[in-house]
Fold these 3 entries.
Entry 1:
Amino acid sequence: MSRNHRTAVYIILAAGLTGAVLSGQATDSTAQAQVALPPLHDPLNSPLDPALERVDDGLGDRLGSRIERRAREMEEKAEELPVDDAAEQTGTTLDDDATDAVQSLDESIDAVVDTAGSAAGQVVQDASGVVSPALRPFALAADPAGWPVEQDMLVVLLDEQQLESLSRQGLEIVARHELPSLGLTMATVRKAAGVTLPQTILDVRAALPDVAVDFNHIYRYAADVGTDPEAADGHVVSGDDGSPTAAAGMRVGMIDSAVMAEHFSLRDSAIVSEDLVTHEGTRPLGHGTAVASLIARSANDEAKIYSASVFFQTAGHAPGATTESLVAALDWLVSEKVDVINMSLAGPGNALLERAVAAITTTAEESPVIVAAVGNNGPSGEPLYPAAYQDVIGVTAVDREERIFRYANRGDHVDFAALGVDLKVADNGAGWRIESGTSMASPHVAVVVARMLHLEGMAHDALISALTASAEDLGREGFDPVFGHGLITAPPLLVSGQ
């Protein structure tokens, strides 16, 4: 057999092995990485797709490079093989060397595939920010005060050393989020068998007094929105030409449900979305789409909107957002350098949420201001959070006659009022609907704040004084627990208008 014939045998063997790898092991590696992604009916995982594509591209490049190199080595080895006159001896020599070369090539390709598989898993982990990338099922329970929480779970803000101490207490760490913008680490922990969740929290606080530990509370919309099983379908909401519309400068963050990307009321807005839900279930669209439309309208489409999707919905339960997701959303929005964060949601006080809010509101001038709806539990309802936290601007709702929304919470944490009754808002069915609640009032105040900070260059410490001076005093003279410092005038958001 000639040297050229021997070389052809090696190349054919290499090509056959390459096809087997590309159709078998490489595919399995990618599939393994994709196990961590949300189900098909929940397409908000799109931020992970580019990362996985990069893994696929990298896998192909590395396989191709490794195989070409091994083929060259085999060709050189073939040229060095002795050409025996006896066909039997030639065949034996060729078979032995070919077997060794192919085995070496096989081992090299396996190594590449294993490395690529590990890289794919790491990309999923890095993109999600969670040690356990798979979405987990949700089970509802209640804390001692009756607030809804995730069953058997608690959340903790801590550092690496404290995390190791937590593990030694026999607690299962279900997920871990790095929060670089807040300078914190958040761990989600499952309680040990035979110990109640309240007792587990007390034990952790006793062992690690410096950490923030609490229930994984559930927060609700501060407006009445019905069941909405639709799922959002995009990472970036684009203009009609398929590319994000350029923003004029203001950067408004919102922590809410997902936003309907294609609603025509948002066609002139640039909206960047991030899914921060860690549970299985659908991603409701109605509330977030309504809030986004109010932000866009109040800003005259001059703001870039950063939408943190935190609400999920499972069968038999109203949409909810966990403390875990709220804290992660705050960290993401700080990293995006937004001017203001609107939170049209409300719930109980929580040690982690309080610490995360404090980490933002007590830092440098460039940190965002947080605006939140005070909630709709009525005049005698207890204060709701995050609006009731110090340095968060709490907003209540009034109608066009400047009368207070009858379900609005009241108290010293009410800072300002804005129009929030019978507003025309974008509906996730692509049309419009009428909505009321403190959720609908706070977006306008958030835009006013963003405009004052970004376009007018106002310092944070002068903001409240300037808002108070410009507000229309309602109710009794001066500050009161119903209207706060007064009405922040809104553009005409009339049912029959825009």
Note: The longest helix spans residues 87-128.
Entry 2:
Amino acid sequence: ENGRRIFGLELPVIAEGEPACLTIFDPAGKNVFHEKDILSKSKNSAFIGLTLRGKVIGIINKNRSVFNPL
């Protein structure tokens, strides 16, 4: 909430009829972080090769949804 205030962004509303902007997250999921997962030009990360707890399954943003395979 504080980040949104700093950048002057409104808080999202979750209500019927409002455009959705949600992240679908599985807190029990596991994910191994690989160098190929880094989208920036720099490939430095202390997390490469580690199994991370929690996994994003997908996103819903306005009228578009994208889901990762389980």
Note: Residues 40 and 66 are 21 Å apart (CA to CA).
Entry 3:
Amino acid sequence: MSRCLDLIAKRDMVPSYWHAEVAAGGALNFEFHLDGIDSQLESYLAECFRRIINVETVVTSRAAAQRQA
């Protein structure tokens, strides 16, 4: 979790929402919201998160909206 937060903090951004919990089986799930970022930065950050060891899934709000459409 700290590696993910570091990617945000080094860009001087602060999440408007952050929630973390340990799920069944010990997996750590967390959700956060970054307000005011464009789709290019969102895609870049998502790719950076995916490269972090032990990160299994990254879903962005735009990607989730496209799946529902």
Note: The chain has three helices and two strands.
